[in-house]
Design goal:
CATH topology of the largest domain in chain B: MetI-like fold
Number of strands of chain A: 12
Number of domains of chain B: 2
Distance between the termini of chain B: 44 Å
CATH superfamily of the largest domain in chain B: MetI-like
Number of strands of chain B: 2
Radius of gyration of chain A: 26 Å
Helix content of chain B: over 70%
Number of helices of chain A: 20
Structural class of chain B: mainly alpha
CATH superfamily of the largest domain in chain A: Periplasmic binding protein-like II
Number of domains of chain A: 2
Helix content of chain A: 40-55%
Strand content of chain A: 5-15%
Shape of chain B: flat
Oligomer: heterodimer
CATH class of the largest domain in chain A: Alpha Beta
Largest interface: A-B, 42 and 36 residues
Chain lengths: 468, 300
């Protein structure tokens, strides 16, 4: 009897392991895994509840923060529980396709043509890819755009206004030979960002440096942070990858000039090498010009700095390379993709398209202030002064100029299989400039031989995935 | 029951005689197979895969030893060796921690007022959350932080290639000092007072007693702290990662964060697995050498 009881006990212990592997809960019609913050997650929960009622289906929604998202996707795939709808960025598309994860949803989008025609073409083309010719903007459609975002140059109006006397001193209060042709008011004073007519005027990078330098180091204020190397390279007339996406061009004159300008910003005392952080800009502590104001930050900046006390402005231009209105900002985007594991792709697409409904988009743009307009017609309304009394119309115009493509482009790294090669440029070079002390940044700059060596190693890394 | 499973003299137990024992062991054996052996085999298998994790492991392409080549001699070798170098420099605190631990333990071992309060105070950092402590250090050593304000300087502690490692070493030292002190204190309290008394009667000086009696008696503690310190040091992740992630130009990337980078951010799970195996083998070799040296040493 004891023996039988022992055997039963052991069996019970073994069987006890089994439920741990069993899936719990009932099956949902559509499973969704998205990368989002708490505010977005709350929005999605409400929205998907409404979609469940409208379409008569059940939806299981899971949200993950940016640091956990990709691991969550991997875990789901490897436990055989691939979500039906996932979040993708353009830079994910090639790798996901290589893994056989994404479904081509072109054939399911026909019914939604009217709505999709209103979406910026550039946004749609970010998720269209032809794997056989390795061409973007054609072939299959692997996601529906979720948003278009911009990382733009922000200015702290309060801080600059308080210290504008230093800028007036730097440039004088009337036009002279040394003023670089900076835009001025009728009284001769230099125009502050909120006084500029961005449709015709802009600062040059040289003027920007002098403005930031004039303000820098006054009572612990930092003039600016270090601008993104790719945006600077564009301003100097180059690109990091060649137009056919075959060659890395960090030994090009434009990239070298961009890196040298970064070093000058530090050495001449315009940029902070460590203090100019997001928090400092947000808390109006230190930074007059801050180069990473994401459009999804609008609400948090309004809350912390105060609506009207900050704004976004065009990136400066380089005289002799381009005109004041020919600056280039960086567009980013995310999309909703359907996976190949999805049993009912048409249904999944219908759930996604509910998110592109007018009422949902209006909530996202106007009420929740979570994103910029995705529809061209909404964007036309968005730039009108009467659209909203919270954003300054100038800032709204700058955002729309970028996402419409007039003054915006996508990072070269978004078209590639992965961004390791791009990260290597940062870790091997540009971060070293960023970390240099004032007066020593120039010594970090590479010699021609150094550029050749770096170009070779980055190209080698790029080549390892280029044709996948 | 006991009689049934006890081993008769000179004969191995047959299956029929000891199967109940095996059945008792079965749950834990199954647990080990599923949660330890199987992942080890999978991680070994993934070293030969071109696997992003975005497809199932058995759908990934087998690429032979390419991942090993890229890590040790190829395009990721510079990052790998740099990470290993950073890891080693972050272990400078181990001997310092042991030395300070002995000194503090000697101090606390004396009969003095408030000794227990000191023991608690020194041990407090050990039980404090590593996340909280590291965030505190980040604030203290930032450009506008307390340390720079205190000395009126603008030192870039967290971005400088050397200084960031100094900060990590200080952080780990501060956090772990209480542990080594407590271990040595326990060791000191077990040192034979008879031997010390006898040495004193023979006229031995305090320094001689410490070197010839106390330190040899503390050898097992020292050896234990060294082995666990190096094992932990080679796998260091939390402190530098929370402090500065990989650091500027990867100057705080450790061997463990190298694995994390290739797992989580680069999505090259094969490369991450090679890094993990390299680290595991390194820890094994270093520990093995330490053990071998210890076995040859005449014990106190």
């Amino acid at each position: 009897m004891k023996r039988i009881l022992s055997c039963l006990l052991v069996l019970a212990l073994c069987i006890g392991v089994v439920p741990a592997f069993a899936a719990c809960g009932g099956k949902s019609d559509i499973t969704i895994l998205l990368m989002c913050n708490a505010q977005e997650a709350a929005f999605y929960r409400t929205q998907f509840k409404a979609t469940e009622e409208k379409l008569g289906i059940s939806i299981k929604f899971e949200d993950k923060a940016s640091g956990e998202y990709y691991d969550a996707v991997r875990q789901a795939i490897n436990r055989g529980d691939t979500p039906d709808i996932i979040y993708v960025r353009q830079s994910d598309v090639r790798r996901y396709l290589d893994s056989g994860l994404l479904a081509d949803i072109s054939s399911y989008l026909g019914d939604y043509k009217t709505q999709l025609d209103r979406v910026y073409t550039s946004a749609k083309e970010m998720y269209m890819y032809n794997p056989s010719t390795k061409t973007w903007g054609e072939g299959g459609t692997y996601a529906v755009p979720k948003d278009l975002s911009v990382q733009q140059l922000g200015y702290n109006r309060t801080l600059i206004h308080e210290n504008r006397g230093k800028i007036y001193e730097e440039f004088g209060t009337q036009r002279n030979d040394d003023d670089d042709g900076i835009p001025r008011n009728a009284d001769g004073t230099v125009k502050m960002p909120w006084e500029m007519d961005w449709a015709t005027e802009n600062y040059t990078w040289e003027q920007y440096l002098r403005m930031a330098k004039a303000i820098n180091a006054i009572n612990g204020v930092y003039g600016c942070d270090l601008p993104d190397i790719e945006i600077l390279t564009w301003a100097f007339g180059g690109t990091i990858l060649s137009s056919d996406l075959q060659n890395v061009q960090i030994d090009s004159p434009a990239f070298k000039q961009a890196a040298a300008f970064q070093a000058r910003l530090i050495d001449e005392g315009a940029a902070s090498t460590g203090g100019a952080t997001y928090e400092n800009f947000q808390s109006v502590k230190n930074v007059a010009f801050y180069g990473l104001v994401n459009s999804f930050d609008i609400k948090s900046f309004d809350d912390s700095i105060g609506a009207g006390n900050w704004g976004v402005m065009p990136w400066p231009y380089v005289e002799g390379v381009s005109q004041p209105t020919e600056w280039q900002g960086k567009i980013t985007s995310a999309g909703y993709a359907v996976t190949n594991a999805c049993k009912n792709k048409a249904q999944a697409v219908s759930v996604i398209m509910e998110l592109l409904d007018d009422s949902v988009q209006n909530r996202l743009v106007q009420t929740e202030k979570l994103m910029l307009p995705l529809f061209t017609d909404v964007a036309a309304e968005f730039v009108k002064p009467e659209y909203d009394d919270v954003y300054s119309p100038e800032s709204r115009s700058v955002y729309i100029d970028v996402i419409s493509g007039k003054n915006g482009r996508v990072s070269d790294s978004y078209y590639t299989y992965d961004t390791d090669w791009y990260n290597l440029i940062a870790t091997e070079y540009t971060e070293k400039i960023f970390g240099a002390e004032k007066g020593k940044a120039d010594s970090v700059l590479l010699t021609d031989a150094g550029y050749t060596a770096l170009q070779k190693s980055v190209q080698e890394l790029y080549d390892s995935t280029k044709n996948r | 029951m006991l009689l049934e499973v006890s081993k008769p003299k000179g004969r191995r137990l047959g299956w029929k005689e000891n199967y109940v024992g095996w059945l008792y062991c079965l749950p834990i054996i199954i647990g080990i197979l599923i949660f330890t052996a199987f992942p080890i085999i999978l991680s070994l298998y993934s070293t030969v895969l071109d696997w992003s994790g975005f497809q199932e492991i058995f759908d990934a392409k087998v690429i032979g030893f390419d991942n090993f080549k890229t890590v040790f001699t190829g395009i990721y070798s510079k990052t790998f060796w740099k990470a290993l170098g950073n890891t080693i420099t972050m272990m400078v605190q181990i001997p310092i921690s042991m030395l300070l631990g002995v000194l503090l333990a000697l101090g606390m071992n004396r009969k003095m007022a408030g000794a227990k309060v000191f023991r608690v105070l020194y041990y407090l950092p050990c039980i404090t959350s590593v996340v909280a402590v590291t965030i505190l250090f980040n604030r203290m050593f930032s450009l506008n932080g307390a340390i720079n304000s205190l000395f009126g300087k603008e030192i870039n502690w967290l971005q400088d290639d050397v200084l960031v490692k100094v900060v990590v070493n200080i952080l780990i030292l501060w956090k772990g000092l209480g542990y080594s002190t407590l271990m040595y204190l326990a060791g000191l309290q077990s040192v034979s007072t008879d031997q010390i008394e006898a040495a004193k009667i023979d006229g031995a000086s305090g320094a001689k007693i410490f070197l010839k009696i106390t330190m040899p008696a503390l050898y097992p503690i020292t050896f234990y702290l060294l082995v666990t310190g190096i094992m932990g040091g080679l796998q260091i992740f939390n402190e530098p990662f929370i402090l500065v992630k990989y650091g500027l130009a990867n100057n705080a990337m450790t061997s463990a964060s190298f694995i994390y980078y290739f797992y989580n951010e680069s999505a090259r799970l094969g490369v991450a697995a090679v890094g993990a195996w390299a680290l595991a083998i390194l820890v094994f070799i270093v520990t093995f050498i330490q053990m071998a040296i210890d076995n040859r040493k005449e014990k106190y």
